[in-house]
Amino acid sequence: MNSRFSRRDFLKTGVTVGAATFSGRGRDLLAGTGQGTTAPAGSPRVVSSGNGLRAAEKAMEILNKGGDPLEAVVAGVNIVEDDPNDMSVGYGGLPNEDGVVELDASVMDGPTHTSGAVASIRNIKNPSKVAKLVMERTTHCLLVGKGALKFALAHGFKKENLLTDKAREAWLRWKEALSDRDNWLPAQIKKLPEDLQPVMMTHGTINCIAIDAHGRLAGVTTTSGLSWKIPGRIGDSPIIGAGLYVDNAVGAAGSTGLGEANIRTCASFQVVNFMGQGMSPEQACLKALETIAGKAKLWPQALKLVDADGRPGFGLNFYALNKKGEFGGATMWSGAKYAVHDGRKNELRECAFLYKTKN
After folding, report:
1. Cα(250)–Cα(278) distance, integer angstroms
2. Which positions ≥6 away from 24 have C-beta within 8 Å?
3. Choosing from 202, 205, 256, 357, which is the catalytic residue?
4. Is 277 exposed, middle or buried (0-12, 13-18, 19+ CB in 10 A)?
5. What predicted TM-score, i.e. pTM, was given to this entire model?
6. pLDDT digit string, tens, across residues 218-268
7. Annotated catalytic, 205?
8. Helices 69-81, 127-137: crossing angle, 10 deg rounding
9. What is the pLDDT of residues 64-116, one digit of tens each?
10. How far is CA 114 from CA 9, 117, 158, 231, in A?
11. Hey, what domains does the chain have and what are their CATH numbers?
């Protein structure tokens, strides 16, 4: 039996595009009223991706003590980066096709409009901290690979093996099931933990953006990137304007999902730009997704990024926060959630969506 799992088949795993139908609700929301207007004006707010409840809680704790927004969001995502059970970022993140964990991250500070990022960094579990140091201690915006690692070590970071047993088992399962024409034999599936039985190919990321009581904005995006990626592959997370963008006069936006689609459209920048034109955060996120969906139709069919009806065959999410403290999140396909702490309650909310996935 041929059990080969193509490197492009992962694009179909996040959504069932053949069973999806276009959602009128998504388009209707382009004329919506926005979100995040229930909390008192001037109070801090934190917005994060669906895996960011703990990050939002920590960031709000720091903001309520008068802490700096960038310090707050980085401290928030550090919780997830340090968690070996979270296989999307940091320690425990899923490795590249060689079984090596490579991490990406970016930060951006609103008041100074400065940024820092690292990409393809190995053996350092908190790339968000290194990205912040790139911003603060260099004239550069992005360091990659060996240079990023050397910079981190110079600032006292310790090299660590980031590949946990759980992530290693997942990588081996993928490698063993990749082809029936090589010399790798799959283990007995019944012996593997239930959550490792599928041949997984994912792009896990956490984004966190915040505004404090003084109107200062900041953001961070950190990831282990696409699992089983070609070594050296860089997604949107460390790219300012793609995985993250902050303009203190307007707002902040970040993203999770298929990074290549985001990079090709500089979509987080577009979200902030749309908010600057008067759109609510939710409207701006949906408008960026609509733009990406239109561009995806132009991409070569060999990329398999659209279905037979010309709809995107990939998942992509945006999160946004404007200068007023209004917030919103939107996803290409229905079902995604995002975390919001409005100063009183920390909770997951449903993302608006462009297309509805049919159950």
Report:
1. 10
2. none
3. 205
4. exposed
5. 0.85
6. 999 999 999 999 999 999 999 999 999 999 999 999 999 999 999 999 999
7. yes
8. 150
9. 999 999 999 999 999 999 999 988 899 999 999 999 999 999 999 999 999 99
10. 37, 11, 26, 28
11. 9-357 (3.60.20.30)
